[in-house]
Structures are given as C-alpha cells and as structure tokens.
From TrEMBL:
Transmembrane segments: none annotated. It comes from Prunus persica. This is 65-kDa microtubule-associated protein 8. GO terms for molecular function: microtubule binding. The keyword Lyase does not apply. The keyword Mitochondrion does not apply.
Length: 450
C-alpha cells in the first residue's frame, strides 16, 4: 500500500520491472499527451491499487481455502485409517510410512494407497460378517419355525456393526453359526427319528403315515418340497403323535390279547381241530409278545381286530349250541366211571337243573365244564383208590361163581362118566377148587368134593 503513496515518478520506476510497470508508463504517456489532471491521475492510480489488492486477496483466500481443505482431507484420511485399523483390529499396514513428511499433497498422496487398501479389507470383512450373520439369521429363523417368505423379509435387514470387524468378533459369529448348525442337524435328526417312528407305527396299525405326518405339518411330507419345520412346537407335536400312536398300538394289542385268550379258551372248550385254528394263529401268536416286540407290518390293523371279534362271536354262538352235547358227554363219562367203581351217580334232578341253567344262560359255560372236569377228576381219583378193593371183589365174585359151579358139578352123579367134554369139566373143577381155596369164606365141604 505504501508503494502507491510515493511520487508518480518513483512509483513508475518501481513498476517498470513488471508488465504492470510498462502499462503504467504507457498510461502516463497518454495522460501527458492528453493533459490529464494530476488529481484525476492520482484517483486512477488509487483505484488500480485497490483492484490489485482485491485480486491478491482473492488469490490468498483461495490458497488458504485449498490448504485448509488439504489439511481436512489429510486429517479425515488419518482418522479413517486409524478407525479402520481399530475396527479391523490391525496393528499397522505394511507400506504405510509411520511418520508423515513433505508437503500436504505429498502426505495425502502417501496415505491414499494405504487407505484404499484398508477400505478394500473392510469391504471384504463386512461381506464376511454379512454372510455369517445372514446364515445365523436364516438358521435361527428355521429353528423358530418361520417360513421362507418371513425369512426373506428379515434377510434384507442384516446390520453389520462396522465399529468391530475384528477376526475375533468374526470367529465369535462363526462359533455361533456352528452351534446353530449343530442344533439344526440335531433337530433334523430328531424329526427324522419321529417320522421313521410314525412310518413304522402306521405300518403296524395299518394307517396312512403320510396323512398323519402332513397333519402335523405339511413341510414334513417330502412330497411338498419345502424346508422341514424344526421348531419346538413341531417337535412337541411329533412327540405327541408318536406317543398317541404308541398308545393306540398298546390298546389294540391289549384287545387282541383279550380276543386271543377268548379264542384259545373257546377252541379248547370245543376241541377245535388244529387246522381250524390256523386262520387266527397270527392273533394267538401275539399273546406272548409285548408292545415293543410287535413290529410286523399290518399285525394290529382294525380289520384283524374286527375279524377276531367276529370269530369270537361266532364261536360263542356255536358254544351255546354245543354246550349240551359237551355236558352230556362229560356226564356220561362221569356215570361210566361211577358205574365201574360202584360209586354213587349224581341224581337226575341235579342234571335236569344244570340243563335248565344252560338253556337260560344263567351259568357260565366254562365254569360248568370246569366243574364237570373237577367231578370227573375226583371220580377218577376215587376209582383209582378203589381199584385194589374192586379187583379183590371181582376175584371174590369170580370165585363165588366157580364155587356155585363146583357145587353143581359135585352133585352131578355122572361127572366121572366117559362122555364128550368130561375131561374139560374135570380140569375146570380142579382149577375152581384151587381158586376157592384162596378166597376166604368159601365152604370147605365144596372144596373137599370131587
């Protein structure tokens, strides 16, 4: 500013060294030629000085702004680089100078490649986090029983915490992902075990397993072609379904046990031939089996139960018609034993009373036959105990018969005559005499006769 306050000659000489000086000199020549007033000349020179200052000021301001921007960019680059190092848990980056030197542009140029490398690392790490978190979210949704459409709505909301992108944090997510995968595999295994149990039980009971499984959840049916639902509620439903089928299996087995025993009792009661029993051997074969031991397909179907029930009803009806026949058969057997052993025979009135009870259905047929069997058994025991006595009685009666014959033979005056058959009578008389001598109570006179 002070240079413009100097006299025109001195100011002109200072400006001659510059292009502005040449222009000012040319301006003075014009003024001299024109005869420009001194005051006007000073005013123009002051205006020129102000305009020059304004131009310089703008240039300086622009330079200051550019410098400030470079400082800001450098500071932001430094801050971003430091933040990336911290978020990625990196100590340093090879190739990046520890201390910055040179001009601002040189410093900015030196940090830019390192910053670009860190940004690439961050992007790669963020993608890794997003992938792992997405898989965690997906498996968690599957475990929670959410549908694919519900998961798709959530998958777009994956938020990655860019303040912590360390490998340690990534390993934590990967560990969580592995835990969820293991849980998913375990749940899938449990689902398959339940489905396999449903197939086996349905095969035994003769029911449609696919319908049972679809009723629990459509995704469990392979024909639906969708991801299996492995949520807690589905596992609980599967467990309840298997328990229900097990209970139905036990219920049907108990019923067939009851029917099998009834068939066996009826067969034994009516002496049913073996070949007639074969058609229901699969029912009686279950009598010795527990529920856990029954595994043949179709062994506990409703059709088998209905057939067994129908057979029991048929045999019950047949039993009533044959009961009298069986009763009379056993009654005759009892009478025969009593007659042979000279025991008291049941009164006819008792027999008639039992027949009336059979006709009225007031007496259990099995109990009646069991009672008859017991009577026959007691009669046989009594007959066995009397056997020795009966043998002696029979021998005594035979001896008495021979004694009477011997008496008649002794009174025959022609017993020694020579006639046909006389020698046979003589031998019989000798045998009779020996037999009579063995039996006490016989007449000695008869024994001594010839």
């Amino acid at each position: 500013m002070g240079s413009f306050q100097t006299p025109i000659g001195m100011r002109s000489s200072n400006l001659l060294e510059t292009s502005c000086g040449y222009l000012l000199q040319e301006l003075q020549m014009i003024w001299n030629e024109v005869g420009q007033d001194h005051f006007e000349r000073e005013k123009v020179l002051l205006d020129l000085e102000q305009e020059c200052l304004e131009v310089y000021r703008k240039k300086v301001d622009a330079a200051n702004t550019s410098r400030a921007r470079l400082h800001q960019e450098l500071a932001e680059a430094e801050a971003e680089f430091t933040h990336l190092l911290l978020s990625l848990d990196e100590r340093s980056l090879p190739g990046r100078p520890e201390k910055m030197a040179g001009t601002l542009k040189e410093q900015l140029d030196s940090i830019t490649p390192a910053l670009r490398e860190m940004r690439l690392r961050k992007e790669e790490r963020v993608n890794q986090f997003r992938t792992v978190q997405g898989q965690i979210q997906k498996i968690s949704a599957e475990i929670a029983g959410q549908s694919e459409s519900e998961y798709d709505d959530l998958s777009s909301d994956i938020m990655v915490n860019e303040n912590d992108l360390s490998l340690k944090k990534l390993e934590e997510y990967q560990t969580e992902l592995q835990r969820l995968r293991n849980e998913k595999n375990e749940r899938l295994m449990r689902v398959e075990q339940y489905i396999d149990a449903v197939h086996k039980l349905s095969s035994i009971l003769g029911t449609d397993s696919s319908m049972v499984i679809t009723k629990v959840h459509p995704s469990l049916n392979d024909l639906c072609g969708i991801t299996k639902n492995i949520s807690n509620s589905i596992l609980a439903k599967l467990n309840s379904t298997v328990e229900s089928l097990d209970e139905e299996k036990q219920k049907r087995l108990d019923k067939l046990h009851h029917l099998g025993k009834a068939l066996t009792n009826l067969w034994n009661l009516m002496d049913t031939p073996y070949k007639d029993r074969q058609s229901f051997s699969h029912v009686t074969g279950l009598l010795s089996l527990s529920s856990a031991e029954v595994s043949d397909p179709g062994s506990l179907t409703l059709n088998i139960i209905q057939q067994a029930e129908a057979e029991v009803r048929r045999l019950d009806h047949l039993k009533a018609s044959k009961m009298k026949e069986l009763f009379f058969k056993k009654q005759n057997e009892l009478k025969e034993i009593c007659n042979k052993s000279h025991m008291e025979i049941p009164l006819q009135s008792e027999t008639d009373n039992l027949i009336n009870l059979i006709n009225s259905g007031e007496i259990d047929h099995a109990d009646l036959l069991m009672s008859m069997d017991q009577q026959i058994s007691r009669a046989k025991e009594e007959a066995s105990s009397r056997m020795t006595i009966m043998e002696k009685v029979e021998k005594w009666m035979l001896a008495r018969d021979e004694e009477r014959w011997l008496e008649e033979y002794s009174r025959d005056e022609n017993r020694y005559s020579v006639s046909r058959g006389a020698h046979k009578n003589l031998r019989r008389a000798e045998r009779a005499r020996v037999l009579v001598n063995k039996i006490p109570g016989t007449s000695p006179s008869n024994v001594g006769r010839v």
